[in-house]
Amino acid sequence: MSTKKTKTEPKYDVTLETLETAPHRALAFLRAVGTSRAIRAAMFGRGYTAEDHREGWKYLHTCAGFIEEADELTEEPSIREAIEELDAWDEPAFRIVRATLERRFPEQAAFVMNGLKPATGAAAVLSVERLLDRLDALERSPERKASRTEDEAALATLRQRGIDDAKRKRMRELVSTAKSVVPLVQVDPQAVAQEDAARREALNNLYAWYREWTEVARATIKRRDYLIRLGLASRRAPSDGKDTVAPDAGGVADPVES
């Protein structure tokens, strides 16, 4: 009767900050080995196998919180939909506001559009909110009492362009929804501690994998461009004309051989 032992990686006495660099560095290494025949051939010559490659990706996925089942992810659809609608609305709306006000109401254009431009994704929530705030200021800000007549005329023209009170109200509601937070279930401190421990173990496993194979790569591969692709060297600085080998967890960078 045979039993299959679960692989246990050695524990390294390094800081969490060092472990946190492993995913980024491992990704560069995995990508280089996976996309370069020459690098792959050199590593295979040292015993690196497809199984080792899959192991690196497995550890990386674990560190990234990769979940295979989509239904395990919790997301509030209304928040996502609000962001998508705001993102789709902001670019044409900003164009209309800018074009209309710059020609007809330059002072109002300068006030409303100063430093303002459409954004992408979640950033659109803030850009739309700022636009709405400034249009509200045209309508009722005490500081703009002296220009109220022109401000109201500017808003009346924007209503003709489709940016009316109903549309502004709708966008304001979407901003509020997009900025809301879905209530969470009560957090179990013990569960949080277990998650933190599991994440550190995952980072350690990836770090152990990365440490072994990058040391093998350093000893095997001498071409500068290959080391750069692997994330084990940085490009030449104009001052000294030398590439630098990326240091390991406790080492100092060494020059790459020419």
In short:
The chain is mainly α. The protein has helices spanning 16-20, 22-35, 37-44, 50-63, 77-104, 106-113, 123-140, 148-160, 165-178, 189-220, 224-229; strands spanning 233-234, 244-245.
Please give a structural write-up:
By secondary structure, the protein is mainly alpha-helical. The chain has helices at residues 16-20, 22-35, 37-44, 50-63, 77-104, 106-113, 123-140, 148-160, 165-178, 189-220, 224-229; strands at residues 233-234, 244-245. It folds into two domains: 16-70 and 188-232; 77-178. Helices cover 62% and strands 2% of the residues. It has a two-stranded antiparallel sheet with strand order 1-2. The chain is elongated, with a radius of gyration of 28 Å. It starts with 15 loop residues before the first helix and ends in a 13-residue tail after the last strand. The model is unreliable at 1-5, 69-75 and 249-258 (pLDDT under 50).
Q: How many strands, which pairing sense, and closed or not: the largest β-sheet?
A: 2 strands, antiparallel
- How much beta, percentage-wise? under 5%
- SS content category: mainly alpha
End-to-end CA span: 54 Å
In sequence order, what are the helices and strands, one letter per element?
Answer: HHHHHHHHHHHEE
Number of strands: 2
Q: Cα-atom Rg, whole angstroms?
A: 28 Å
**Stretches where pLDDT falls below 50 for ≥5 residues?**
1-5, 69-75, 249-258
Biggest sheet, strands in spatial order? Answer: 1-2
Count of separate structural domains: 2
Shape assignment: elongated
Helix share bin: 55-70%
What's the mean pLDDT score? 84
If helices are DSSP runs of H or I spanning 4 or more residues, what is the number of helices?
Answer: 11
